[in-house]
User: Fold this.
Amino acid sequence: MQLNFLPAGASGLLLEPEQPHDVNRLLAALQRALEQGSLPGVRELVPAARTVLLLLERPLEDDTALLRAVRALRFTGGAGSTGGHVEIPVVYDGEDLAETARLLGISPEELIRRHGSRDYLVAFSGFAPGFAYLTGGHPELDVPRKASPRVRVPAGAVALAGRYSAVYPGASPGGWQLIGRTAAEVWNPERDPPALLQPGMTVRFTEAGSAAEGTAPQRRSPPAREPASGSAAVHVLSTGLQALLQDGGRPGYAAQGVPASGAADASARQRANRLVGNQPAAPVIEALGGGLELRARGPVTAAVSGASGPLTVTAADGRTVQEHREHAFALDDGDIVRLGPPAAGLRSCVAVRGGFRVTGQLGSASTVLLSGLGPPALRPGDVRAISGDTAGPVGNPETVPLRLPGDGDTVTVEVTPGPRADWFTSAALTLFHGQPWLVTPASGRVGLRLSGRRALSRARNGELDSEGMVRGAVQVPPDGQPVVFLADHPVTGGYPVIACVAARHLDLLAQLPPGVCIRFRPVSPSPATEGGEP
Assistant:
């Protein structure tokens, strides 16, 4: 099998068979090799329509054992199902059933018959945890997405788009044609594995016997428990723009549509924990902007890393003192710590000695709001207990390695060519590196939305099939204005990636507030990974 090797930043390698139908054979061979431990340095696989992304534990180097292992793959067996069969009962009463049938020139009854007439194959997951892209159904079920996506699609909706079918695992925006609904629970983070539909499985849709079979269960995050009397804790008085619990994230679930997530500025989380003697990945509060106020219950040692700005502590008697960020400081029972508006940077990590006591999901306490994973965003009145699980002594003051930007500043960010740089004209590549790009207010933990005076033009028309994405990928939608993916990015995407941000600048991205401009400076990629015959 002839493969193209496309570097995807420091942490990814995109494998693309020259014959698209070979992707299932490639995935099966890679899965076998990963299970046998013969893919050195690979953390996990992200299958997609025509590619498989290898997520790496360390930066790729020329002629590594990994490249040799991929080139040595042996393809045995067929390219079909690699694990299990699932039947999904559907009540065919979707809002778009009649319109979809009209688009296809058939009756709704014939659409229902065709949808359930053949097995689908779970090709890959993306968009949201448990959202599986199903291929191989009736060849004439090929319909466009809606011109204007819905703001909310209910959990359990069964839908069509292009030649794919899917079940929405949770309520979310969406532009697919809705033809029915199911009660099948395709995503449950308490289940092992949490996704019902795994890549390589086959799926058959059957017409449900009753409307009750189409009512999807609603899952809710358990409420935080009140800490026991006498235990140390913090009481949330105000959250500012946003306050989330974040740790080192949950790698290992990308193939099920789950981003690794974790603190947007991982180095700030590590510094804050180091200052108070915690394990580096202990949960911290990630505060967006200023306005976070916490009251100590019992004696608490805390530290704040990340953005710079005022940090005050007010005692019960009204006395107020200024504390220093990147230092550990003590709070007595009743003391209130306040984070003022950042003078530079955007996000702050607040750690307490012993770490916050949090019940994790899928091995992590990180909150991913769009996926409904982890504890809910903090609210005034919440009380978070402290676990007491320390790793060492209180640390010395930390030095922030990079100067953080403020409103109106311009920062230079290093990038390597993206796996789809060839989708853009030479003039667009020159423009991408030449003009400044403004960070817009539409940015968030998913990514930075940028605006440039001139948009980027493509050298190729048409749509790119969805493929795996890495943190730091710079996607370019049809409007030519880039989006840089951050911690909560979707694991797959359908817009071409023009470049990938260098690993050493990934944390800096999380500290860029709206109004900052970015200049992308090209650097040499990893040594060439030419295609070859495995």
